[in-house]
Automatic annotation (TrEMBL):
It comes from the Eukaryota. Keywords: Hydrolase, Membrane, Protease, Transmembrane, Transmembrane helix. The chain crosses the membrane at residues 440-462. One of its GO terms (biological process) is fungal-type cell wall organization. It holds the Pfam family Asp. It comes from Lophium mytilinum. InterPro entries: Aspartic_peptidase_A1, PEPTIDASE_A1, Peptidase_aspartic_dom_sf. Belongs to the peptidase A1 family. This is Acid protease. One of its GO terms (cellular component) is extracellular region. PROSITE patterns: PEPTIDASE_A1. The keyword Hydrolase applies. PANTHER family: ASPARTYL PROTEASE-RELATED, HYPOTHETICAL ASPARTYL PROTEASE (EUROFUNG)-RELATED.
């Protein structure tokens, strides 16, 4: 289904849209819970798009999907394309988005990809993409999936982005002659979500229990949040003026081995000051200051690879880290200086024990999602959001960071609506429910009754004067018990007009 833009007079507030995950964990830089989208409209019938599994980007505002790439041929083209999240199309494995097969594709041109906070990537320092407008649907292509026409889509070939991403940022991208509205903005204008807001948690493959052997899938709610997916103390952080980036203060980072192994807690930020960092789930990495990278690398016995700029973990180090079973805690506040209002995000070693495969490495290689920042701009990537629930409200210019909730079994969803900033709750004052005519009739009846009562009063007054000189009659016996009368009065029905 496609949607028209919401009019200013629309009064119905829609329910939040729960975007279901694909049900699988995918990626060449770890196992990440993905979401299914459809792009294009091959038959011009509104439900003949191409399906893709994608990651969620809290920092990007574009729908990015993989196009066919010559390098994607290991172990073969079909398997590589499937690994990139490209689904079958026309009853065969597609090798990438075919814009020529979409009747609704309108190309804009080739432009650079907006990188997370201007960090440098590998192997392409400044990868680009072919941009255009096309139909985008949430979920696999179907007449039941919500779809929007004319959405900004970027086709990627670069190895830096093995899979596509679905951008949640509300920052318009200024390409092709002017700012282009985001999917989230258009989705709200189409009255499909109550507000420019969302709640997101990346999921965690390593959270496996006897009754939950497949890990915990990601959670994404547009226009609301799932209260069951976070716990503990969270913090609300204002967005910078004129900037919708999710910038937090990292006040400290500590590493604590399993208490049964060692009782010490080690500071990774000793001798350094706190720093500002952007939460951006586009990529998994934690871009941190060099001194902190060195401290973490020493504690986890990591090896720096100058070719890929990754910290790898050899078998000996992995065995050591597995036995230590350490946790790494990020103390996060609204600013970098120490404060009492903070959220503690605790990453178990399992959240940092990742595997990189083709095309990063020909053979699967264990690595730690730590990166040096060549620009002095720091980013907390997808790895952090495995243990973090994020609530973002672009209308009120703030966001909340809270520890993710993991219980065995996981609780039922509890979806809470985030209302638009202009929303005025309905009045709670009780009303009679009577029409104006009914009220007027009651008023007239009361007036007639008043005249009758006045007439009776005059009649009793005259009668009393006539009987004033007659001998008084004995009082009649009481027929009403005062206790019962009191009960009857209490039970009397009173109408509220």
């Amino acid at each position: 289904m496609s949607f028209l833009r919401r009019t200013e007079t629309a009064k119905t507030i829609p329910a939040p849209y729960v975007f279901p995950p694909s049900g699988t964990f995918d990626g060449n830089d770890g196992s990440w819970s993905t979401f299914m989208i459809s792009v294009g409209d091959a038959q011009a019938d509104g439900h003949s798009g191409q399906n893709f599994k994608v990651h969620i980007s809290t920092g990007g505002s574009v729908v990015t999907i993989p196009a066919q790439a010559d390098w994607c041929n290991e172990p073969d083209k079909d398997s590589c394309a499937e690994g990139r999240g490209i689904q079958t199309f026309d009853a065969k494995q597609s090798l990438g988005f075919a814009s020529s097969s979409s009747g609704s594709w309108q190309e804009i041109g080739i432009y650079n990809l907006p990188l997370p906070a201007a960090v440098e990537l590998y192997p392409d320092l400044r990868p680009n993409a072919t941009y255009g407008h096309d139909t985008v649907g949430l979920g696999a292509d179907s007449t039941l999936s919500p779809m929007l026409t004319g959405q900004l889509v970027a086709q990627i070939i670069t190895e830096d982005f093995f899979m596509g991403v679905f951008g949640l940022s509300n920052t318009p991208l200024g390409i092709g002659g002017g700012p282009i509205d985001t999917f989230l903005s258009d989705f709200q204008n189409a009255n499909q979500t109550p507000s420019l807001a969302y709640g997101y948690q990346a999921g965690a493959k390593y959270r496996e229990w006897p009754r939950n052997t497949a890990g915990v899938l990601g959670s994404l709610t547009l226009g609301g949040y799932d209260q069951s997916r976070f716990s503990g103390h969270g913090i609300s952080v204002p967005m910078p003026p004129g900037n919708s980036s999710l910038i937090v203060g990292v006040q400290s980072i500590t590493v604590a081995p399993d208490p049964n192994i060692e009782s010490n807690v080690y500071s990774m930020t000793a001798g350094t000051s706190g720093f500002l960092a952007t939460i951006d789930s586009t990529l998994p990495y934690l871009w941190l200051p060099d001194a902190i990278c060195d401290a973490i690398a020493d504690r986890f016995r990591l090896t720096y690879d100058n070719n890929t700029n990754l910290y790898t973990v050899n078998d000996t180090s992995h065995s050591y880290n597995y036995n230590q079973n350490a946790t790494m805690t990020f103390t996060i506040g609204s600013g970098p200086n120490p404060s009492n209002n903070v959220a503690s995000i605790v990453l178990p070693y399992a959240a940092l024990d990742l595997t990189a495969s083709f095309p990063i490495y020909d053979d699967a290689t264990k690595y730690f999602p730590l990166k040096r920042s060549p620009t002095g701009i720091f980013v907390l990537g997808r790895a952090l959001l495995q243990e973090t629930y994020l609530i973002v409200n672009y209308e009120k210019k703030n966001f909340t960071v809270a520890p993710a909730n993991f219980t065995n079994p996981m609780p039922e969803s509890h979806i809470v609506t985030i209302y638009p900033a202009s929303y005025v709750p309905p009045s709670t004052t009780k009303k009679s429910g009577l029409s104006t005519g009914a009220k007027a009739g009651i008023g007239a009846g009361c007036g007639v009754l008043g005249l009758i009562l006045i007439g009776l009063a005059i009649w009793f007054f005259i009668r009393r004067r006539r009987n004033r000189n007659k001998p008084a009659a004995p009082p009649p016996p009481s027929e009403i018990d005062t206790l019962v009368a009191g009960t009857e009065v209490k039970k009397r029905r009173i109408s509220e007009l």
